[in-house]
Write a structure and sequence with these properties.
The complex is a heterodimer of chains A (570) and B (342).
Chain A lengths: L1 H25 L16 E6 L14 H11 L4 E3 L6 E3 L2 E6 L5 E6 L19 H12 L14 H5 L2 H4 E8 L2 E6 L6 H5 L9 H10 L4 H4 L7 E7 L3 E6 L12 E6 L3 H9 L5 E3 L4 H6 L3 E7 L2 E7 L9 H10 L2 H7 L5 E3 L22 H11 L6 E6 L10 H13 L4 E5 L3 H9 L5 E7 L6 H8 L16 H12 L3 H18 L2 E14 L2 E2 L15 E2 L8 H16 L1
Parallel strand pairs in A: 1-10, 1-11, 15-16, 15-17
Antiparallel strand pairs in A: 2-3, 4-5, 5-7, 6-7, 8-9, 9-10, 11-18, 12-18, 13-17, 13-18, 14-18, 19-20
Helix pairs in contact in A: 1-19, 11-13, 17-18
Chain B lengths: L1 H24 L8 H6 L6 H10 L6 H13 L13 H36 L4 H15 L2 H15 L22 H7 L5 H40 L1 H8 L4 H38 L5 H10 L3 H29 L1 H9 L1
Helix pairs in contact in B: 1-13, 5-6, 5-9, 5-11, 6-9, 7-9, 7-11, 8-9, 9-11, 11-12, 11-13, 12-13, 13-14
Chain lengths: 570, 342
């Protein structure tokens, strides 16, 4: 009985104290004050859309992986200037090109530290061995690391890197020389892309000794502004700052990628301020109207286009192609398909490219003009055509089927009957390469700012069968201009050649560029610094947070807690 | 008390046997290769499959298969998750504590809110306050939990931005796992941001726990109201009244204690219900608990996880039942003696 009574009393008093605790906790809503010592003041949570496949950008082209790895963990020999996308020194403090353009010498910085992490502590700074190892791994099939993680280097394969580079030589500890088979003015730009990262040779040797080669790409060691702490697939990536970063002090102590695949989930987390920055936001209007958030956008280096199969009549007739370009209401497409979140193309190149020249007499939407052109071409009654619409979503074309339906309705006005065709993506690509289509809605995303990355893969004669030229258009004069542009390093000269190439495209119109879409992200206003880049992955190296914005009602809140305490005691 | 304990223990034992037979039989109902479903080794080659067949005694009689099954459970060898390829026992040891934490806090909120309100309703029987509380109880009981979860996220996370909507703590805090119970791990950790982490964890648990608590709280209101009304009718309360004790004294010293004892049993019974709400709430709030894991596993056809997750969750619920029964018996001599007499 005594025991029972004691238990009884104990039970009641426990209940009372729990009561008190709960009232206390309930009345202390989330502490959002960012005082100096708060962890939120110098850490950032980025809500990303997916998990990276690997932590080595050499192995992939996926944007999600590049976003998570390239500019956070690694550096490249060269970088793009944030002002005008020209090349600036990075790990290489300077470089020299021989007159024939075939030998390029890089002089490396001597003060670059690799990441010190829980799993590896480097004993030396960056030197020529690291750079040679990083590129030999791609070039040399006999390199012990070439086949680790699959042996596929998709970016380097598309630019024919192995055929271009004859050899890499070590001149001394901080000087290396690339020997090329032929001059290529896009070579340097390719070395500045997100894919051309520099790995640690010392770490690789260390792993070889332990027989854990695969860790090179999953437990990364780079020279970048952040180092990897922890990764849980589908959940989060935790980075800490690289205290020894060579370029500048890194302001954020901790950077966390909160992997949130649902776009509504990302929006909720932004609004609840669980994420400081979110990728690919929805509800743009709601974000811009809110006083605490801003919406960032950058015009990406991409283009969505309508291409004609110029080997098939009637599309072998330039007038027919031009007639179609005047009969489609492109402004409506931008509005309906892209939701006004893209820029109407005036040429193949996006406006942010240095080689871009605006085309003043850009195709005008005019049915009468279109009709007269069709008559002149010999099709006054119109004709019937197959328009292929790609089955998947891409930034450059978020809904090709809808776009095809709009075009179908537009072309009806000038008597052209459009049948829309779509296959599953791999079948679609295969049949497209075989040239079964009349016209196709497709697009292209560039990996680097060099304009050649648009001209050669999309419209050159050599790209007809191996590359991305699905118009089968081939113009010797155009190809000659591209070759001339690649052979010179004089920017003004190159720009002139590219302008001429653009004029040829305009006159012949093998494809009609439709839009350059934008990439979006949303952030809390206290986050400072440029994260989105016009091409390639995002960059957190210069991001910081505005200092303490104490809540005004701080004092009142404390009083509330005090009075609650009294209530609880009663 | 001894007889009572023995009775409960034997009940526990036989229920466990039945439960294990049920989960054991599941292996014959799941589609696909039984060995792979059991071990979760989706990439096993022929040699490995042969070894697995021996390990699981798959070609022997059903009794030795069952015995092997029990042995495996006792050794914590529950196979690998087919989705993540991690041992199920490791996954459960991190997930179950999170669920227990959420359930305990939700149950506490439900009791703290529900029982006093029920008592008040009983004291003011058939008056305005009683009607208001009863209306609240019925309306609250009719809210579907998933809808309520989305609603509170909409109001408190999106509109007001007071509370976070997902997870159990801000990802910025790196808390090493020791017990699996987040609040305890935070207090054990030597992070310089200990108290910030504690605050963050409190803020994260508040919404999901409140959502889970609503339905049980309304049940408690009605139960507490009924049991208090019963107590107030009893002769010892009448006697106390005639002795001239004040109303407060009667309620506090006599009525509440006796009414509370009757409640304890119901709290145990509500627990199974509560776990169902917890599972749904975990999905909505991305709570890293066993309920969400189980529901995700169903979507991924992760049979190893489903089989063992069900077992662990059922054992957990049953243990809580037995536990509340013991508390009830310890606090209420009538329960023990009644059993003794019958």
């Amino acid at each position: 009985m005594m025991l029972t009574r004691r238990l009884n009393r104990y039970f009641l008093s426990t209940l009372m104290s729990i009561n008190l605790l709960l009232i206390l906790s309930a009345c202390a809503p989330q502490d959002k004050e960012q005082s100096e010592d708060s962890i939120h003041a110098h850490s950032l949570i980025y809500c990303s859309e997916g998990s990276p496949e690997t932590f080595n950008p050499q192995l992939v082209t996926s944007g999600t992986t590049i976003d998570a790895t390239s500019k956070q963990l690694y550096d490249r020999l060269l970088a793009f200037s944030p002002k005008d996308d020209s090349l600036i020194p990075a790990l290489a403090k300077s470089w020299h090109i021989t007159r024939d353009g075939k030998m390029i010498t890089f002089y490396l910085r001597q003060d670059v530290e690799f990441n010190h992490t829980d799993y590896f502590t480097p004993t030396r700074k960056l030197n020529a061995d690291d750079v040679i190892f990083s590129f030999k791994r791609i070039l040399d099939k006999n390199n012990p690391y070439h086949h680790v993680s699959g042996g596929k280097y998709p970016f380097f394969q598309t630019i024919n890197f192995t055929e271009l580079v004859k050899d890499i030589e070590k001149i001394n500890d901080y000087t290396i020389r690339f020997k090329l088979n032929h001059a290529d003015s896009s070579f340097l730009t390719n070395l500045a892309t997100d894919f051309s990262v520099v790995l640690s040779a010392e770490y690789a040797d260390n792993l070889t000794k332990k027989n854990q080669q695969h860790l090179l790409d999953t437990m990364p060691i780079g020279t970048g502004p952040y180092k990897l702490k922890e990764f849980r697939s589908g959940s989060f990536i935790r980075f800490y700052r690289n205290e020894h970063y060579w370029a500048h002090p890194v302001k954020l102590e901790q950077l966390v990628y909160d992997i949130t695949p649902l776009n509504t989930g990302r929006l909720t987390k932004l609004l609840a301020k669980e994420c400081d920055v979110i990728s690919y936001p929805i509800a743009h209007k709601k974000i811009t109207e809110h006083k605490d958030f801003t919406l960032d956008s950058v015009t990406s280096f991409n283009v969505g286009y309508l291409g004609f199969n110029v080997t098939k009549p009637p599309f072998n007739n330039t007038l027919v192609r031009k007639a179609i370009s005047h009969a489609i209401n492109f402004k409506a497409i931008i509005n309906i398909v892209y939701g006004d979140q893209a820029q109407l193309s005036t040429s193949l190149l996006p406006e942010s490219s240095w080689a871009h020249t605006s085309n003043k007499n850009h195709r005008e939407y005019s049915l009468s003009l279109a009709k007269s052109m069709l008559e002149a071409a010999g099709y006054p009654q119109g004709f019937s055509m197959n328009l292929w619409a790609m089955p998947i979503q891409r930034a450059y074309n978020p809904n090709a089927l809808k776009m095809a339906k709009l075009i179908q309705a537009d072309l009806q006005h000038i008597g052209i009957k459009v049948n829309i065709i779509s296959y599953e993506w791999s079948t679609f690509l295969r049949r497209l390469a075989a040239g079964e289509h009349d016209a196709v809605l497709l697009g292209w995303s560039a990996d680097q700012p060099d304009p050649d990355n648009f001209f050669t893969p999309l419209l050159s004669c050599s790209a007809r069968y191996t590359g991305g030229n699905r118009t089968f258009w081939c113009n010797k004069q155009y190809d000659a201009l591209l070759a001339k542009a690649l052979a010179t390093t004089n920017l003004k000269q190159r720009k002139k050649y590219y302008q001429q190439a653009l004029t040829i495209i305009d006159n012949e119109l093998p494809l009609i560029p439709i839009a350059h879409s934008k990439r979006y992200q949303a952030r809390i206003k206290t986050v400072q610094g440029k994260i989105l880049q016009p091409f390639g992955g995002i960059d957190f190296s210069t991001v910081s947070k505005l200092p303490a914005q104490r809540l005004v009602n701080n004092q009142t809140k404390k009083n509330n807690i005090k009075s609650n305490l009294q209530v609880g005691n009663n | 008390m001894l007889m009572f304990t023995l009775r409960r223990l034997s009940l526990f034992f036989f229920t466990m046997v039945l439960l294990s037979m049920l989960t054991f039989s599941l292996r014959y109902f799941f589609p696909g290769d039984m060995l792979i479903n059991l071990s979760g080794q989706i990439n096993a080659n022929t040699a490995e499959l042969k070894q697995l067949a021996i390990d699981y005694k798959i070609h022997e009689s059903i009794f030795s298969q069952y015995w092997q099954y029990l042995t495996n459970i006792f050794h914590g060898n529950l196979g690998l998750s087919m989705a993540s390829q991690l041992p199920i026992s490791t996954e459960i040891s991190t997930l179950l504590p999170a669920t227990i934490e959420l359930s305990i806090i939700a149950l506490t909120i439900a009791m703290v809110m529900g029982i006093p309100l029920g008592f008040i309703a009983a004291i003011y029987h058939r008056k305005k306050i009683d009607n208001i509380i009863l209306t609240f109880a019925i309306v609250g009981h009719s809210f579907p939990v998933f809808w309520l979860g989305l609603l509170v996220i909409l109001i408190f996370s999106i509109q007001l931005a007071w509370f976070p909507s997902a997870g159990d703590i801000s990802l910025l805090f790196e808390i090493p796992q020791q017990t699996g119970f987040l609040f305890i791990d935070i207090l054990l950790s030597n992070s310089p941001y200990k108290w910030q982490a504690f605050n963050s964890a409190l803020a994260h648990i508040f919404l999901p726990a409140s959502v889970v608590a609503l339905a049980p709280a309304t049940v408690f209101i009605r139960l507490a109201r009924t049991s208090m009304m019963e107590v107030l009718e009893t002769s010892y309360i009448q006697a106390a009244k005639t002795k001239g004790l004040s109303f407060i004294q009667i309620i506090y010293h006599h009525a509440i204690r006796n009414a509370l004892i009757k409640m304890i049993r119901h709290i145990g019974l509500q627990f199974a219900n509560l776990i169902t709400f917890v599972m749904i709430t975990e999905v909505i709030f991305s709570w890293p608990g066993i309920g969400r894991w189980l529901i995700v596993s169903i979507g991924q056809r992760d049979y190893t996880a489903i089989q063992n997750g069900l077992l662990v969750l059922s054992i957990f619920i049953f243990v809580v039942h037995i536990f509340t029964d013991f508390i009830y018996a310890a606090l209420n001599p009538l329960a023990r003696e009644h059993n003794h007499g019958s």
